[in-house]
Amino acid sequence: ISPVVSEVHVDALRITSMLSNKDITIQVSHEVDDDEAMILAMGYKQEFKREFGAFSVFAVSFSVLGLLPSIAACFDYQQLVIGISPIPWLIAVFFVTSVALSLAEVASAFPVSTGTPYAVSQLAPKKWAPYLTWITCWSNWLCQITASPSVNWSGASLMFALGTFTNPNFVPTTGQVYGLTTGIQVVHAIISSLPTKYLATFNSMGTTCNMLFLVIVFVMILAANDRDNMYNGDIPKFNTNGVAWSLYNQTEWPQGIAMLMSFLGVIWSMSGYDSPFHLAEECSNAAVAAPRAIFLTSSVGGLIGFIFMVAIAYTVVDIDLIAEDPQGLGQPFVSYLTQIMGKNTVIAATALTIVSSFFMGCSCMLAASRVTWAYSRDNMFPGSRWWKKVAPITQTPINAVWVNFFIGQLCLLLMFAGDVAIGAIFSVGGIAGFVSFTMPTLLKITYARNTFKPGPWNLGRFSTPIGFVSVAFVALMIPILCFPYVRGADLTLDQVNWTSLVFFGPLLLATIWWVVDAHKWYIGPKSNLDQDHILYGE
User: Which Gene Ontology MF annotations are present (predicted)?
Assistant: First the structure.
């Protein structure tokens, strides 16, 4: 019996890749479906099983989004900046969704786990492509590796807040918070090392729980709201429209600047929509499923988040009291719940938020491990030959999972420098993600505007205007996210916004590395196909 030989003619797929426009045919000794043909044409072997379906890849993305724990974690960065009004969320979501739409279009054209750096390598001018790809890689990687630690630190803090709420004499130490966060990180690293089919099932279960718990807590906020009785009828059950929709600037900046600063809460809460891009090599019909999941995560998440913001706006009693935190809970969201609910209901709502946070943190670690693996496949990191290995038993990049775990532990050491320092990883996640998500969009609407080949999921004639809106919004927000919340004589060392150092410091080091050495060997994404399988035309 003759062995099966499949041929993939790269240029026949009408794509842009490292192998396109070279009259290349790829031969492999097995049958090839459309997804594998696409990844081969992109220059890579099919190394993962495609066991994520359309829903399960959306499940990972929505779980990374983790609206309930994200809203809880970002109370500091939105309600305690500009007040309870849902208006900032609504405005910010409009622009965040434009960024997501542009990213989804790019994901359809380049459905590979490398994500935006691969797109940048193909869209940028040849002279600058290696450096721009290099910077995009490092920016996206910073976004990914700070996600799981920040989520799990927030989850651990919620647990301790619940402990203090039930026992006012208990005051957790920073070491205890670090230890609990580490324990959660270890569990997530173990789960993220499992075979793909188990990961898909786990994340689908996590998304179901996240959606269900979000609805339950939303209903609890409205139905269990007992603030009128808790305050002896001195206040109504719900705030008036004038109170709920009013802005309350709690910073030392003008109100317009304060509103922009409050967008950090929305940006961070909505930052998980890129995850399907990095799972493109593990899902079927990737050129459609991945961008569709990006769009759905952003749009559905934005709408649900807005509704949740409205519920909070109509039930908050005293935002100043939440900021003062007289109970010493350390978590504004829990302090808010204590203003409107009885003790047992607060415990239940916070517990559901903690469980959702657990699933969210696990999805973040999963997505980050795929990014580290993909970039190591292009030999970007020291030790890439270890991080790019796929374990033969699980067929997952276990080494990449655990190197991310150790780097995450280093990031978590920032908590010993205080709340402002550890809070920088939230801003870093927002800026780093924005830079990475928007770089290919910027190139798509400028240098590559006449050469970009959209995939089956695209924006059509709206691609360019949406792209310009995305780029303009990101250009505005990058400096805004570096602003401290106080200024002048009040700007002491412990109030400095460390985002500039934590984000731009590593990028500066990456640039120095590029100038000194990396430019000699880093050329961007590299094909890992066996050369004897690549046939060049005459």
Answer: organic cation transmembrane transporter activity
